[in-house]
Batch of 2 targets.
Target 1
Amino acid sequence: MTRRIQKRRGESLYLDGQVLIAMPSLMDERFAKSVIYLCAHSHEGAMGIVINKPASHIVFRKLLVQLQIIEDGDSIRLPAGAEGIEVLQGGPVDKARGFVLHSADFFIKDTTLPIDERMCLTATVDILRAIAKGEGPHRAALALGYAGWGPGQLESEIQENSWLSSSATPDLIFDTPAEARYGMVMRQLGIDPAKLSSTAGRA
């Protein structure tokens, strides 16, 4: 994945570590009312995780059993933090693959992608094994699939007013209910989501 680009005042900024918020003008129904946390963004393209669409049919504990990380009977002995890990529909690309968005207190050399000083992304089964043993990150969410853009594609969509961008904090991902994240980010930007959707599409 791409390494983080040094950002300077007055330069065009890459948006890794921020969130994208889908505008009503976005034509792709797969991303309607999506909030996407950008994990990587450079001249080579962008990659992010949808953070406001839970995979409600999947329980993290049962997924660990399915992946043979724990035995079925061991599930009752999972660390308390592992029981509450949210499983998200991370995006339409590679939906069978898991991506763990987590706090920066956990790192696997040559595997973990540092996003900023607070957040990282790890996409190997080793992090799931660590979580099951109580040795993983303090805070984590598992996403199935991701959203991706080719070179210049995201920039073009932003120019077309398909996306807004905003700063993000770990609290948005780990402490705010998934269904409330879209409205919360919109309100942080000073936008009433109800008024925005009601005026969308008018000349």
Note: Residues 1-12, 198-203 have pLDDT under 50 and may be disordered.
Target 2
Amino acid sequence: MRSRLQKIQFTLAISWTFFNFQTLAAPPPLQKVGQAGNSFFVAPPPPPDIGEPGQRSQAGSRGCGTDMSKPVTLVSSKQLTALVPIYSGSQLVFGTTIAERPRFFFYVPYSSASTYGEFVLEEAQNQTIYKTLLTETPGVVNISLPSKAAPLEIGKQYRWYFNIYCKKDNQIIGNVEGYVKREQLNSNLKTQLEKATLSQRVTLYRTNGIWYEALNTASELRRTNSQDKSWAGLLQAVGLNDLVNEPKVDCCALENQ
């Protein structure tokens, strides 16, 4: 009888230990951002090990050259903005990707006649893994990492910067910065994506918190189908309503490093 009781107690102890392990090991839940319909994005929990939160939009701009009080030419009253989510509690600028070389989107309000852009991607210890200079055209530009750039590693976090410089004095007049992390694509989601249409892929990406592929796919839909609401829905979900109708423009690299 005592041996049987000890066996039951041991079994319960193992079950309780397994239950606690499962509870502790479960990842934090995704958080739905935005409204119903197409206007939502299920954001992953922010990383706990990020120091500076970043900056999604540039606050104001200064002049070029010697006349620092005269702002550089803007094509609108809107500010330089990275098209990424922001966490309201911490102002953290962060998004995830499953791509080795994701595509980054920015809204640029400056005239290329007097300015140029620079995109920088860094890994830990401020080590630059990719940098390019650009002739930015006013509108929504996208920057793709070329095949010669080192691929992003799964589970690794990177920091990016997008700076605007004056051509006269090479001084920064606008900048945004944030973080990107590459996540592992699970086999179930991979199978679903392989069978999905572009519109279905956007839904799969945004319900799984994968921002960069969601926006990139929505951009493709916007290009091929002007009636599709995926692009507008994603931007509205993360508080970028005023950029929904801004045109997408080509962006030319001047120099790659």
Note: The chain has a mean pLDDT of 80.
